[in-house]
Amino acid sequence: MKKRWKKILPFFKNNRKYFIAIVPSLIIGALVFLTLLDNVRTDTYDIQRFAVSEETIRSPITIENKQETDQRIREAVNAVPDRYSISEEVTEERLNYVNEIFDAVLTIIAEHDEGALEEVYEEEAVELRALLSEEIRSEISEDVLISLLQQPEEDLEEAGAVFSESLESVLEQGIRAENIQSGITNIERDLAYSEMNEGLQEDLMELAEFAVVENAFFDYEATAQEKKDAATLVDPVVIRAGETIVREGQTITNEIYEQLELVGVLSQEGNIYPILALGFLAAIIAYFFGMECLQIAKDKKWNLLPIVAVSLLSALAIFVMKIQSYFFDQSNALYLVTPIAAIAILLKVLIGDRSAVRLSILYAILAAFMFNSYIAGMLHVEAAIYFLFSQLAAIVLMKKLSERLVILKTAIGLILIHSAVIILFLFLSFEKYTWFDVFLYLGLGIVAACLSAILAIGLLPLFESFLGILTDMKLLQLSNPNQPLLKRLLVEAPGTYHHSVMVANISETACEAVGANGLLARVGAYYHDIGKTVRPAFFIENQMPNKNPHDKLPPKESADIIIRHTTDGANLLKAHKMPKEIIDIAKQHHSNSLVQFFYMKAKELNSETEEADFRYPGPKPETKETAIVCICDSVEPAVRSLQEPTPETIDSIVSSIINGKISDGQLDNSPLTLKELKIIQHTVCDSLKGIFHSRIQYPKKEGDK
Q1: Of 467, 474, 452, nearest to 401 (Cα)?
Q2: Which residue among 10, 188, 256, 648 has the highest number of C-beta atoms inside a 10 angstrom radius?
Q3: Which of 69, 56, 68, 50 minimizes the C-alpha distance to 245?
Q4: Binning pLDDT at 50, 70 and 90, where does residue 695 land?
């Protein structure tokens, strides 16, 4: 067993940085799985037909009711009437027969005068029949033809026009075998409304029985296509996830029972697939969370505290959403009051913008699952969109905490964003909302914005205190001149205090020029020489004229006192529980530079003097802010010592000091690039030129000495 541990422990030590990310990701993944288990798991019920439901049951899935769909298709197909095609040949044929009859009758009448015709109707009828087609002769009786020959020519012409028009109208509508008589009746009606005599009407009625025949025949292809189109137009009957199948107290009919069986809530066999899908989702969330923790760990120099903060905030976000989901259902919109923006604000302040944005996206995805009313298969997209906009707005609106009204501005901005998103949801909804509902939802959004701001301010000091994470708010507190260490520095070492303020101003400007934390550099510069308060008189800026205690000490002892102010300062800051970043600036602001004055003095006394004995112990600056304070701490007293500082001399001194630190390797561990060092050099020179500018020599009055 001991041998196994000896093999395992080195592995853990060598891969410690990866376990910093793996352990929190596993915890968050497990937390996601456990909290969402109820949201994806389908409940089953032991229900009998025709019983009374004891609770409201909703569909956990979206599924097509094929039986109901097939029934509707059958109804639609059966409702399609048979299609008939009208034969234009038959229509034209019957019209031609009628025209032929009237043309022949009028021709016979025109060939004989009226008197002669009255005596020979039978002979002329024979002549008329000879002119007509065989089908007409076989269908039309001789009495009808004689009767037509006896009618006045004008009446026949008018009757022919009316009859032909009526016949054409009837035939164009289509005459099937079963409605021939109705077609004849329609012609009778048209003739009845005309002004022709009754005898002529009777003749034409017999003619209608001949002319009206079947001309509409069953069209199998058109009927089949029509039925097919009708079946295609039937929408599938779909039971959607979240749809209420049976309400509490409602009798479970056979149809309802079949729907419950279809959606699977009567099956006592648990569905494993949603659980597997949830496990896959939890693994994805854990992976991205782990990648984010790994990136944060790299950015924070493998400091464990930011990872703990991110994990706690993520767990808090999950718990807040879970608790809120218990009070949420489809009949209310209580998810709107969730103060999720507070988590985004804390992430931005404690960790940074990029991490806050990426984690906000993960929380929004979780919200879609969390607020699904515990209906498996549903996603609450509105909640996800609302949470995403709320968090992103908080990240964008939350500026530097150095501004007094930043929280108020953030709260007002969140109120506007929440209101805009809520109104957008209402406008896009098909449901009708009353003004009371509109104001209620807007009120929930306003409450969420205010709660987010209040919770962010309330929780921030807790994270600062318990996790030791340095924020802008903490830095502002440390920059207060009434802070005990700064008051001590001002009283016991006023020269050092003035020097620290000058270095702070220059360092902040230089940091902002290269994108570093200017506020951290300023506050760190305030405290960087706090160790000089242990022996203030041994530092030249605090000495009275002609009183230098180093004159009575050997060079090595003097150098040790000077060098010791970095460790004394670090110890003082630790005793006052100052943040690690401030302690690092106090400890590293001289890097491993050489106390050259006392080294040269000792060298004159002893040529074998070791240079290493006169160097600061370091360590070398490891951050941009510490490196910039290191540069400015050397530059400020050098320029201040000039009798007549000119822009040229300032540029020369700053350039030589920075180049000297580079060549001496004092900035090797800092992340500053050569380009950034060039920017810092120009920025520091501009600041120093503004401070140590040339002054006008005012003329003396007469009599002044």
Answers
A1: 474
A2: 256
A3: 56
A4: low
